[in-house]
């Protein structure tokens, strides 16, 4: 049993995912995207391919979402002129709930993953 | 960062809740002030006098406002001092109804057109006398009338509580008036000073009664002038039966006593009728006439549609024609435009007729001066002349119902006013009976509103179908399957009207006019599943601030609203008992406030369901300070003008300055109105116009990276204090930059400066731009590739290139500033980016491609006319609009120019009468437990007179459970307009080809859904219900519209402008843009002609838009909304060319011809009156192009023939085959 880099990654991801759960609710878009991208990179370095694979779809979605954001000069995702349209608002809310569910599941997966790595190594 | 909306509006929300009083009130009062002041000093008269002043405050803004006008002119005659005021008013309200003309007669003989024909109105006579009589007879009566009801009210309830209530009202709404009257009150023992303030409220009510009030008013006025008023006031309150009251009053006044008595009696109607058919002159002879007029006005109200027709006739004064016109369903429509023409107002009044206007306070003018039209209308409305005057679907005017009952019934039933509602029915029966045999509202039911929950669906259907002009056929008609591929002439010969919701006749009368409020499905499906099956878009199309000739304005202490959903009380609520009402949107049971129990209409207590709010689906409330975040702002106008070389070359400055000089006095506003000017090229120039300077001072700021205001206080100046300086500037401006070599344009910094200048107050910024902004913030690059203009693949750059303009617009919107963009450019100017400044600040966009004052005179003329309308039209400031709908429905996606502040609240920095909106709806919960759904829009705004007002429209629609009923109720025009809006969004967010596909799919889906579910006929043919038969045609028209077409060379700016128009135009105008109207005009006849003013307007049948209809022997007029084309065939009759065009033969017609000469021939007169009539019906003046068959310009004309094949697009038949193919797939 040794505290490997992979275990460190899982532990970090565990903590950060807890933060992401709140970000997903609060729609703090940029921090969420950055944090998620950050531990994806960490998993890549740790060669945790399965975990990385699980996160890739979300990462791709984030990238696509940010690329296709409305024209705006500053950072940000939501356009004040359209966000209050009920359908767009509903979509964003649904998106938030889906991510919340994903992060919750991921949280336990990382917990499991960390213990598994610690035990197996 | 990611967090959305919050930022833009802090200012609005943060504002201090103000006390209403001081500035706003005084400002508002000021304009009215001069005139009334002298009168007030007459000791006894004070009471009555106050009314006019108060009145003035309320109504000045309104187009229709009769009261102001009448007052102004009347006073003018008597008092030389007042002339300014008179000018001011008359200038401001060009729109105002005929009444206005009456008043002004003395001063402006030209205005009288209407009257000139008819026998001189009694009013006029009075006015000419030069004494007060004129005033009294005219508008002034109306005002005073308001006071009477109030007084009666007071008498009724001597309880101090009532007084206090009144006083409070006054204090809120009209502080100024209070002050005025408080001074004077001493003399009147009977009426405490407090009561005066309340009078305004009375006015509003008075409007409702108009017929009643009008007569009463006169006496009052007369008295006041004579100084007898005290005597009058006492008698008034006493008699419960209104008719008697009137008589008494009249007798007191000594003014037309005879007439009043007539009112109550059946004989009066006869008189009226005679007047119609016969001549106006008769009326003149009889003193009674005036009274009768007022009465008829009330009657008119009932059959709104028919009445308009009548009114036209009257104005026309041709007695013979009247009967036919009334009968024709089509006519009403035409009549609608008439009032506008008369007024020469460009504003579009759809349904409201002059006659209908009369019942309202606004209509006072009509009563006074313009009574003729009213009379006519009244006569028309009266059941006798027309056995079947069906209420128009289009003009289903709620107010009519309220007013109407009063008059007609007395005649028949001999009942007192109070019971007007029941009495109405006989009148209605006449109209409706033949058509809607089964459905008629049960006579016994007096409380019409309460009935509705009970309606059986069947009855509704039958009743609704009952023959309106449009698809007058009985119910089955709208469902009659039409084989589209077999039907060669799908387009009807007459204009397409809005379908009438399938409601019981009572509700139908009360329902909102389709000109203001339309739904794509007039039968709302019960569930979302049903809606999905029908594959039709569900949404609303709104034109909330339309110019109305009649509008009940209500002042009361408490605006009655539902406590949970805040819905305003409306005709479709149900009264559970005397003291409680049930909200029709959320079904909560609310208490009826004490004040609401008194019904000013009948002057009775305990009839809340007869209050004007409950009798009219379109009403306007004067809001109290609860509805303000800050004191009402003054009207503030800022003009930001491009003066770079390009702009000077185009020469728009001359036209603008000229228009401004001409219309400076007509700018809507009160004494606080402020105005400012900025110009910019590569630097920004401010103009110090502070009062006291000898000449305007130009201040140049060259630091465009960090713009500052050199003298923040003196750049926006009071219009009246600095008028001379402003005029100097406007005279100098066109020549100041003639030699400029500056080619750059720093639009962005100029806008930032404008924002800084406007942010303390809010208001309107008008930006004139002629090129791509090339300096400073917001600079843009040319993005258009001319080679891609006719690409069939991808059209790029429909969205903005930068969000600078959007952010600026949001900042402006937060500071209640709207930015209107006039783009006059011959080159690509990236309208897609620039338009954002108007889109999100609730501004409007005007685009004049290839504008040049000499090279393109027709554009120059158009700009001039548009500017006139733009500068003088009504305007509302710091507005918000909220749309509510019955529980179970929900709104998503709004279309139009605004900022969506929350899911159902639109923030509109400015609102103008030409703005339209659309909303998409979805059904969230099943509507199975209700048979009716309602939609309510409430537009809260500050009028240009500094009043806070709320305009409320309520629409009621039935719920159906079968798919067939859903199809039967499709409003195809509304559906197309909503689809167009959605397609614009789609093409910006996704791509143009996506949008086009979606449009085609809309047809394919709905027709295939219909084919597979409703029609059981052979599936090989392409079938559509009759209500949808025009759907494919309109969609094809959309696909060939500039906004969505591909394959035809279209400049990017043109395309974007078309999209902007689709988003912001109201339905009527948008439909013309999408599907032009084609008429053959070389053989105009008077058959079916209508009468507008004193002109005969021929009504040629509509032709389908196909070259097959064009014959070489003919001449055709195409009405594309903003452009008219007259196509002259090679073999066109020389008589036509000579008589109408003024050239001897075809060959001599010049290539560029933009005017019809005024020739003294019958055919020329007909053609011109027809074109003028078309022109007057729209806010923006269309350009006329006369296109010879062989000229190169004919391509322009032919591209509008949308049923024909072009190299890039299907013909109509091909399109149908394509759709059929898709369905079969």
In a few lines, what is going on in this structure?
Chain A has 121 residues and is mainly α. Chain A has four helices and no strands. Chain A has one domain (3-66, 79-118).
Strand content of chain B: 5-15%
- Low-confidence stretches of chain B are 1-474
Shape of chain B: globular
Class by alpha and beta content of chain A: mainly alpha
Tell me, briefly, the overall form of chain A.
Answer: elongated
Number of strands of chain B: 34
Number of helix segments of chain B?
54
Q: Could you estimate the helical fraction of the residues of chain A in percent?
A: over 70%
Roughly what is the average pLDDT of chain A, rounded to an integer? Answer: 90
* N/C terminus separation of chain A: 5 Å
Mean pLDDT of chain B: 69
Uncertain segments of chain A: none
Order of helices and strands of chain A: HHHH
Structural class of chain B: alpha+beta
Model description:
The complex is a heterodimer of chains A (121) and B (1225). Chain A is mostly helical and 121 residues long. Chain A is 78% helix and 0% strand. Chain A has one domain (3-66, 79-118). Chain B has 1225 residues and is of the alpha+beta class. Mean pLDDT of chain B is 69; it is low at 1-474.
Annotation keywords:
heterodimer, A: 121 residues, mainly alpha, 4 helices, B: 1225 residues, eight-stranded mixed sheet, disordered N terminus, Cornichon (chain A)
